[in-house]
Amino acid sequence: MELSHTDKKFLIAEITRELGAAKDGGGKNLIARCPFCGKPGKFGVYIGPPTVRKKPFMSHCFSCGRSTLTPEQLVEQIGRPDLILTPTAELDAPLDATLLFPLDTPQEEIDDRLDIVPLPPFYRRCFAHPYLNGRGFTMDDFEYFPAGTTHGLNRRWDDYVLFPILDEGDTVGYVARHTWAKAKIDAHNRRAKRSGDYKILRYRNSVENDFVKLLYNYDAVIEDETDTVVLVEGIFDVVALVRKLELYDNTRAAVVATFGKKISRTQVFKLQNKGVRTVVIGYDGDAVEAIKKTAAELSQWFDVLVADIPDPTKDWEDLNPEEIYRIFSDRLYTPSEYRLRKVQE
Q1: Domain range 211-344, its CATH number among 3.10.180.10, 3.50.50.60, 3.30.1050.10, 3.40.1360.10
Q2: What is the pLDDT of residues 288-303, one digit of tens each?
């Protein structure tokens, strides 16, 4: 049975009280005396969001090895069968995947399962890099957004900076950006086409999971706490906007990248599962038609606003904090207002 948010909070409170448990540092596990062998501090109950490997209320003792796999097994084993819940309706719960989209459209199952992806051999995180420094990265950025290189030990990734994509703490993909400027890469590739030399890819990304299932900076969206999400196109947009609006420690608002000028049904479902209510579309200034389409789609499930960048040649990296604040104070439009303004401009 899929637990509602209310039921999950109730179970966590009761199990905490019954076991005399305390949350660990990450807040995703309850740690207590084992109800089987009695060893203190060895029994863990997972209370975080579901991942590929873990489901809520799975438990394990790191002393005697006893485990439970479901909430029903756990409450039976700790002597509280009265906590077994029967299905009820929760009016404020996120919609089930089968109800997420209009009934007059063909129904398709939303598959948000993700494989864990290994980073390239010899990857090592860095806290300073000439290319990233040149793009405005600060120490806070290096701390908040993991990035690294293979440090010359893997020729395939020479001159690339790699950004892991995290989902519930697991690495589910990565984006690798070549450190040369686009003009230099294009010039090299024109020469390579004539000479038969190797071609340089501006981006060399993971292939294990389809990017329509991924959101960069998704872990910054805290379940039932983050109310507003700003959608941008790419990783550098996320970093720039978080830095310039100082959103590093803001749990009410987050910036995520959809890896392009559109959003997939799986990405919509992932945001809705976290309890997001308001989505601000912050795509580049030249993405007018894409913004109109995305706003119309998202308006079925969220309160939608558009942060309108007036200059079609600019993105969030190009704007200074004063310009960004002006956009969010003076150029934040509903989808209808945005369409009307673009007709008039």
Answers
A1: 3.40.1360.10
A2: 999 999 999 999 899 9
